[in-house]
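Lab notebook: predicted structure, single chain.

Context: the supervisor wants predicted structures on file for every construct in the current expression panel, including those that have not yet been purified. This is the next one on the list. No modifications to the sequence; it matches the entry in the shared construct table.
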Amino acid sequence: MMASPMVATSAHLQSTTTTGRIIFYSAPRGRRFAAAVRASGKTMATEKLGIRVERNPPESRLSELGVRQWPKWGCEKSKFPWTYSAKETCYLLQGKVKVYPDGTGGGEEDFVEIAAGDLVVFPKGMSCTWDVAEAVDKHYMFE
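Prediction complete. Output recorded below exactly as produced.
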């Protein structure tokens, strides 16, 4: 098993390897939580509550995806519900957001925080609430 920067007791952490992924399961306060971590070159992608986040991907990765040619969208500090009718990949140029997927309970650990420099994938069909703490400017692509 490869070393992880995460610290947990064996009662709270179990890991398995499945096709290059390490999946962590824990149950704080009786709830099930799952996150996947995958190393891809120099960046690491994490998946939590169905949202995949790649922090500060290299420009070569962004170029490979054609991110700079994608449409742009932005919003000011706000809070609003959203449902993804298609899979969305986006790259945040600026901003900070807490995304609360519906059905997760809305507790302390039931959100994914995304910020400038993050490449994010939201699955088709996900309903959530965006809590925008800092104005967002992003490139996006629906599949």
